[in-house]
Amino acid sequence: MLYLHIALSFILFLHLVEGNFYFTNSLGLQQLSEREELPVGTFIVQALTNQLAVDSFEISLDAATYFAINNTGHISIKQRIDREALISRTITGTITAKKSTASPNTVTATFRCVITDINDNVPSFPKRLYEVSTSEATSVGVLIFSQSAVDGDATLNSNLQYSIVSGNDGGKFAIDGTGKVSISSKLDYEQQIEYTLNITVRDQPGLSNWTILVVNIADQDDLPAKFTAFNYLGSVAEDATLVSIKTSLNMISNPSLKYQFSNLV
Ligand SMILES: *[C@@H]1O[C@H](CO)[C@@H](O)[C@H](O)[C@H]1NC(C)=O
Ligand SMILES: *[C@@H]1O[C@H](CO)[C@@H](O)[C@H](O)[C@H]1NC(C)=O
Ligand SMILES: *[C@@H]1O[C@H](CO)[C@@H](O)[C@H](O)[C@H]1NC(C)=O
């Protein structure tokens, strides 16, 4: 009778220990946050149950693509994670622990890991070279070019700053925080007909790229017509039948002038 009692107590005790199989850190398995691009094999977290030894652990769904779990519940990086390539920035899945002698034999926990950004993308303009034309008469302040660069990263890693690093002779152009280029001081075709601006973009941590903007200045009839000489001499024979005097009057700057004699002497 005593033996039976001891045996029954022992079975009951075993049942208490072995039963009620559950994860002890299931909440922690859902509140993970790891940065992208961690090396394969990096240890992340250990799934813990109330049982000393578990037959096996499994990880499933999306999580199984990027994370591996071994038979002691250690979860590590299985495949490189590129945050920009993920549809959702959070990787989720299910962790299952199995133990044949426990009750229940199988327990599951949700796995949820937010992937944070690192600055792994260089900003870039869609093209290496742009060309625009503007008249020398265009007012100061007018926008002549508007092309932002793109950066695949998040937050500060894609916070871009623009500058014209070369070619801005005489400081004729200004660039704003979104990469828009405008005229900042009066252009003059007679002074310079073309500018080659190197526009450099930089993200906050310092990765940079550039594009070239060629600005062609178009001439405007902004100068008074001017003869190149004070007087011009032609000669005509007194017996000339055809009254035609040919001489060339070289004019500066304007090809489409009309000429007329105003005072014949
Ligand atoms: C599981 O991985 C951890 C480290 O990531 C290691 O310490 C442990 O021994 C591994 N367990 C098994 C059963 O391989
Ligand atoms: C810089 O931008 C160009 C396109 O304008 C792109 O082809 C190139 O890959 C970028 N550089 C880097 C290091 O990403
Ligand atoms: C533009 O400037 C960057 C530095 O900001 C430089 O690395 C690049 O070579 C320049 N591009 C050209 C075409 O000069």
N/C terminus separation? 153 Å
Largest sheet: 4 strands, mixed
Strand ordering within the main sheet: 1-7-6-3
The portion of residues assigned to helices is under 10%
Give the percentage of residues in beta strands: 25-35%
Descriptive overview:
Keywords: Calcium, Cell adhesion, Disulfide bond, EGF-like domain, Glycoprotein, Membrane, Repeat, Signal, Transmembrane, Transmembrane helix. It is found in: Membrane. This protein is mainly beta. The chain has two helices and 14 strands; from the N terminus they run H-E-E-E-H-E-E-E-E-E-E-E-E-E-E-E. It starts with a helix and ends in a 47-residue tail after the last strand. The protein binds 2-acetamido-2-deoxy-beta-D-glucopyranose (3 copies). The site of one 2-acetamido-2-deoxy-beta-D-glucopyranose (NAG) has 7 residues, from strand 14. One 2-acetamido-2-deoxy-beta-D-glucopyranose binds next to strand 14.
Briefly summarize what is shown.
By secondary structure, this protein is mainly β. The chain is 8% helix and 32% strand.
Secondary structure layout plus pairing:
Layout (H helix, E strand, L loop, with lengths): L1 H17 L13 E4 L7 E4 L9 E5 L2 H4 E3 L4 E4 L12 E9 L7 E11 L12 E7 L7 E4 L13 E7 L6 E3 L4 E4 L10 E10 L4 E11 L47
Parallel strand pairs: 1-7, 8-14
Antiparallel strand pairs: 2-5, 3-6, 4-5, 6-7, 9-12, 10-13, 11-12, 13-14
Bound molecules: 2-acetamido-2-deoxy-beta-D-glucopyranose (NAG) (3 copies).
One 2-acetamido-2-deoxy-beta-D-glucopyranose (NAG) binds next to strand 14.
Subcellular location: Membrane
Organism: Exaiptasia diaphana (Tropical sea anemone)
Membrane topology: Single-pass membrane protein
